[in-house]
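Throughout our pipeline, every protein is held as a single compact record rather than as scattered files. Nothing more is needed to write down the fold, since each code stands for a local backbone conformation. For reference, a complete record is included directly beneath this paragraph.
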Amino acid sequence: MKRFHYGCRLAVLILTPALMTQATAQSDRVETPLAPGVSYLLITRPGPLQIHVLKLDLSEATARPAVALGGDQLLQLAPLSAIAARQARSVAVAGGINGGPGILREDPYRGAPIGLVVAGGELVCDPWPAPRSAILFPAEGRPRIERLALRGSISGADAKPLRLGGLNRRRNPGELVLYTPRFNPATRNLDGGRQVVLGGVFGNGDKLTFGTPLKGTVVASVDGKVNVEIPADGAVVAGSGPAAAWLAARQLGEAVTFGFDPVPEVGAVSAAVGAGPRLVRDGKVSIEADDEKLGVVLTTGTQPRSAVGFNDAFLYLVAVDGRAAAHSVGMALPQLAQFLIELGCTQAMALDGGGSTTLFVRDRVVNQPSDGLERAIASAILITTTGRLSTAPLPNPLVTGSGVAPEPGATPVLLPGPGAANRPATRIIVSPSELTLAPGEARQLTVSGEAEDGQPTAVDATRLSYEVAPAQLGRVDEQGRFKAAKPGSGKITARLGEYAAVVQVKVTGEPDLPSITPKASGDIPTPVEPVQPGETVVPKNPSPPTPLAPLPNINPTRP
């Protein structure tokens, strides 16, 4: 672990006299290796500011960036730690950050990303509602940032192309939108018009990619307001107005060809996520929010921020904590842009921010999300590795616990208690589930596990971690003992991979009363059953359709 100080150089980069005064004070920076070519930087500055950075050496062959969704399908949100845990089933994850915005409010399309997404080489959704900055990770070569648009087309037996306006999202009146199995088990269309179901599109393992046409066969034609099932090997095309007339003319068994071309042309892309605005262009501050039609509520003021930037040698994923006066106040976009330039970025853009700002390192979230806990998000940028994960201790004092990434083949350290070691825990329980303590008092937390059938099982302490929010309440040491610090209310979240349990905490000026009886178990979120590739899910009791109000031309996500 490296620790060094810097400060004087920063003064020329800050935009206001007040911030220039802050810059004269020293800042602290700790760098921890995570895997070959990957490290985590914790930067603390006056303000106060806490900045978390994942740094990837782009020349390291064993590590690469990837984009992952909240679930196997688009209309599924999940916390960053759960997204990383799911990805870690197939490849080691050194760390990651939240991706682009998504529809988080209650909505028939809740969970849908807002902006371009390419995951695992597959084009998942288009840059709706407007072309905005997207970080592209080509199959070969360095990352790039583009304000990308898609030009889609579809044709039937007469080979006359019709404009295909969108992919895997809400459709506007008169638009023609394509829905693939990546979207949802069913289309959730509530508009009029017509829908045509295509079969045999993905039967040979084909993916929808930039510039590659795909073919299918018409197997059904239904009303536009039907919540029609999307075939596991097919797609659904839905439209109204003139597009509905074209769809109504399609015949059963007719061959249909469709595809999407990027504008500008970008070649083969293995991963991409859209958000915006662009912050740095060619080494200079360039905040392009107006050009990208982003609302001022999302781009102004001092907020928690997430960003991605790069130069010829390194990729940086940056999370700035905010909305916590005693911990970190956040950054305005100009300040964030200057910081990215200081890191060495020649190109950079913002990701979703506010309560979505989350940075994950190795086996835990290391920043302090402003909601007090992780927000479920639509997408993430992860750094995966085929190299060996480091077990170096992390420097962040706000997130503590015995959890470090175990070396491959290492013997688990099992917590005392009933249960067999060979039965994986699918639920964890922390007791007590409520704590009331005075400053300086300490209380032992006890963690137990349950297997899928509800029977007790052992918990591997090397995978266990704790988060205290707000941080000033106290900390949990590596033996699982919480020591109270300052008065206030909040929670302790214990995590074991993608599973979590919460302890409600109140730190008061009076000692804990012996009459308080803690509950028997923590509050456990119900795990979402994953959808297996190729599985066809028939929606049960779909809700009756209701009219949808048009969306404003801003990112409809909570700040």
